[in-house]
Write a structure and sequence with these properties.
homodimer; 497 residues; Rossmann fold; seven-stranded mixed beta sheet; six-stranded parallel beta sheet
Chain lengths: 497, 497
């Protein structure tokens, strides 16, 4: 007997037309209430069936005694019953012909002993049936195209192009939440859980051909099927960038990983080799996971390592120059014609080189023109623009604050009048649009750095998925190096084919 | 003829009883208006004298034709006249007996040629007079105890215990602004400028004995007087931690530094040696400058490298374990009695080790008790607490958002009811107070990590200078390593004395 390919199998998981929650409840402190409440309030529009032998109505929907009583097909069953009831429920799901299961319930191999035994049984129940299973011990899944928030925490991610599979529920869902604060959008998310059936490699394979996904993000503590993972990664990397944070790399980390997810810590040297060979891009820190993934989602890849830098302040330019050098990128020497073009725009005392110091001017039209000159320079492969985009937020924090607010108001005009801020905001938006236009026109990445202050980078939010903006030059430079690393992999790979 | 020690000289700079702005103006686009407006609206309460030969009233104060016309003593003259008038003005200041000068005006050695010549002349004018001079080409100074904001950008820093000297005005003032967003307070700030007179070492020497300062932060591109700087650093480090970001470390960075500040790039190998030998603590990135400085200002030093970790989610614990190992710190094995104490508080299935996984519970009283057990454990030198402090902000972002807000409201109670958030906020505040109390009681650092989301970490703000909270475990671990590095230096130093 043959079953559909993983793509078709997982399409029922991530785009279910009908969904049951087995173990649904009216008790608001139970996951059986919280998870379906997240699904309903998250905007899921497919068929929704709560299942509970003792209730009649949950979240204003009629309740079914058993999954078998549900009329018609069930693409996805979310299971929240206690561990000792899970296997019975999953067996019924198989009998019903349910296509995919997400077992939220914990109490399996992560507990050892009986839990381990139950998980083996669970694997056996599912094996060979064609039904695929996420978990157990998972915080659930998210899928942007169908507004599916089958998650324990009530996260509402920004929809986007990044698919994310995480071997940690807390870390995964908090990254979704952090993404929201930073304007990083996700297409799909899965908390991998104990991998009784579906494994990291399966999600990777699905994301590889998923038209909703352009970037794949993985948080990995240990691989249960390293060989297959490597094969899938090798096939996927030439199609889409895979950004990986590998935790448990140190002895202490590996030990912590074993206690928490029962994952097998991969041999670190093997994993490093796999990363390089398969073209996966490593994120060294949790912050880098989003820093790098969002750049892949929004910016073209640099064709080389020659970077042009625009800075609104000399010191930041120095820091950026250091960071670029540290990551193997090159602060390009501008050709004579580019210097001449910049000479026409900037006052005579400008820095006459790269970084281009925008001499502290508030006349932002100068910034626009310099950005265009640098981005279009044939010797430049990528641009970092410091301080201009997001400038509103820097100035916002200066307006009418502190103990002297009254005196400031009396001494009209204020030091930074609100009209100035409004003007700055309009310019900010225009600069953002210019960056987006120039990235499309030149097919070069233009990364912005804006120093976070108490003001929000509000003008960015309207087109947040189309720009990349970092809180420090070091993070921008590191990200650019990651984009270049992937570009180099693609070149090598193309040469080999 | 002998002059007062640097401490007395610079006390007139940072705590002036009287202040003149030479070049004050009513034209609101000029620094001659913006700088005095910052001073007045910033709350400076000393005598304030605008000086301008052509005006009669500026910012509601009577104007003097010349600095010489000002009645009584002038502790500080801020000079904003164009470069070609600066030397004449400074000569008059010397004749008047002004004690200190801040020359905002640019157009000196950073321009080369004539500017260089003028700066040499400026140095000669000041030399041997007893008047001390900041700049030229400086963005100014800030001093918390007297509410002095003699700055070009209208920054209003949080008052605190960190004194900051920066060889970049933009970077320096934006760090003050960033500090405000992150709750990092400053006692003094000086944008060092071209160092025609006062040099980095002079500010360091003043901060060393400044009772308002507990931590010294330096942004250095190049040293003009490396030997003296080293001597002062050597004397200062045993008294107060000196956190240094050294920019221009790469060839590209050094070149950028020369073009922007005309600073001499120090020989990198010499600088590295100086850092280690003198016990200065290096910040590798701009973010680390504040990360590390704020920890020194708020937390006791760890007596050893044994760290206890509390985590609200397994994955974050793994990441923290890796980060601690990477920075040479140790995830301590708890002794049997500590495990037994934790057993009494946590459910039977807890991780039974370090990190202590707080099993996703919302019962925060459990977190309190675990924190106390771990902090008081005699084998623990430092604690990292993940996810608990600042938890409000994580949950805030879940409340009534998105397209389904109406439906959420209809389906009462909401997924996360606002009463729950209020309750969480109170607990957050109580946990913050507990951390502060336990740090004082145990004299061990307790660093918190809270994952930033769209909600603000509001409960922290009330006692923001007393706690340290990081947006990622990696940044918390790196900071803890810096605290430990300094502690080790103090031990070595004590052994040698």
């Amino acid at each position: 007997m043959s079953y559909p390919a993983i793509d078709e199998q997982l399409s029922h998981l991530f785009e279910p037309k009908s969904l049951a929650v087995v173990g649904a409840s009216n008790q608001k402190v139970k996951w059986g209430y919280i998870v379906p409440a997240n699904i309903i309030t998250g905007g899921y529009r497919g068929e929704f069936y709560p299942v509970n032998p003792k209730e009649t109505e949950i979240l204003e929907r009629p309740v079914f005694k058993s999954i078998k009583d549900v009329p018609g097909e069930v693409d996805l069953a979310v299971v929240t019953v206690p561990a000792n009831h899970v296997n019975g429920v999953v067996r019924e799901c198989v009998e019903k012909g349910v296509r995919t299961c997400v077992v939220i319930s914990g109490g399996f191999s992560e507990m050892g002993g009986d839990g381990e035994r139950m998980e083996k049984e669970l694997t056996a129940i599912v094996s060979g049936t064609g039904m695929r299973l996420v978990g157990p011990n998972t915080m659930g899944i998210y899928s942007a195209p169908v507004c599916l928030h089958a998650l324990m925490p009530p996260v509402r991610p920004v929809p986007g192009k990044i698919a994310f599979a995480a071997q940690s529920g807390n870390l995964g869902t908090q990254m979704l939440s952090l993404g929201k604060a930073l304007g990083v959008g996700f297409s799909r998310f899965v908390c991998i859980g104990n991998e009784a059936d579906l494994k990291a490699a399966d999600y990777l394979e699905y994301f590889a051909d998923d038209p909703e996904t352009e970037v794949i993000l993985l948080y990995i503590e240990g691989l249960r099927d390293a060989r297959r993972f490597m094969e899938v990664a090798e096939q996927t990397s030439p199609k889409k960038p895979i950004v990986v944070m590998k935790a448990g790399k140190t002895a202490a980390g590996a030990r912590a990983a074993r206690s928490h997810s029962a994952a097998l810590a991969a041999d670190e040297t093997i994993f490093e080799g796999v990363m390089k060979q398969t073209g996966m891009i490593e994120a060294d820190t949790t912050e880098e996971m989003l820093d790098i993934a969002k750049a892949f989602a929004a910016a073209p890849l640099p064709r080389g390592k020659r970077v042009g830098v625009l800075t609104w302040g000399g010191g930041w330019g120095v820091v950026t120059a250091d960071a670029l050098a540290k990551h193997g990128l090159e602060l390009v020497d501008f050709p004579a014609e580019t210097l001449a073009e910049l000479d026409e725009v900037l006052p005579p005392y400008w820095s006459h080189g790269n970084p281009v110091d925008l001499v502290g001017t508030l006349d932002l039209s100068m910034h626009f023109r310099c950005l265009e000159i640098v981005a279009k320079c044939s010797c430049v492969d990528a641009v970092i623009s410091l301080g201009t985009m997001g400038a509103t937020s820097s100035f916002q924090s200066f307006v009418v604050e502190g103990p002297m607010a009254d005196e400031i108001s009396r001494l009209k005009p204020r030091v930074v009048p609100s009209e100035f801020i409004k003007q700055l905001q309009l310019t900010d938006e225009a600069y953002r649009d210019e960056v987006i236009k120039l990235m499309a026109e030149t097919q070069k990445p233009i990364l912005a750095v804006s120093f976070p202050t108490s003001g929000a980078i509000t003008p960015m939010l309207a087109r947040q998925s189309e720009v990349v903006i970092y809180p420090s030059p070091e993070r921008g430079a590191k990200t650019l190096a990651a984009l270049y690393e992937y570009r180099e992999f693609l070149e090598r790979n193309r040469a080999m084919v």
